Amino acid sequence: MQGIDVKNDPVEAKRRIGYIPELAELYDVLTPSEFLHFMGSLYGLEADVCESRIGKMMTAFGLFPNIHQRMDTFSKGMKQKVLLASGLIHNPDIIILDEPLSGLDANSVIIVKDLISKLAKDGKTIFYCSHMMDVVEKVSDRIILIDNGSVVADGSFEALKQQEGNRSLEQIFARLTAKDNLGQAADDLINAFGN
What we know:
Order of helices and strands: HEHHHEHEHEEHHH
Number of helices: 9
Strand order of the largest sheet: 1-2-3
Mean pLDDT: 88
Distance between the termini: 59 Å
Number of domains: 2
Strand content: 5-15%
CATH architecture of the largest domain: 3-Layer(aba) Sandwich
Number of strands: 5
Low-confidence stretches: none
CATH superfamily of the largest domain: P-loop containing nucleotide triphosphate hydrolases
Helix content: 40-55%
Structural class: alpha/beta
């Protein structure tokens, strides 16, 4: 990874990676400021650099008024914004996003999708894991579809569309992975109310 031997220098390798999980245990008795300063210190950021980035990121996410509020009072979306900031605060070269839009309001979703696009244009490597196929279509240069641990498709969205008959990514995924008729399953669920 960028000339770093991950086996011999795992700490340096980890400094170049940002990870944003769908669910994480935040130290929710801390404030966003305290938590993000803690995360910044783990990555070796100077306090003044950290302070500047925290202010800018919390402002961008609309959380600056809550920067000194304990996170145990935060909604899922507010916590997700803090998680996003914590994974990006050190400006990593590689970013791993696992369902990063979980719990976010519609405007924040737009911001994060735009952010992903801009980070990719800046040369960052982004691994985006999601079940939201319409978002994957829009933010990915390369898509890998996995079913039960096996790769069933690998390529750009345009290439996958050409291979699969100009379908949406959701339709392509369903065709490649569905063991049963998904439409029938939806009908069966509706029919459950017929009694």
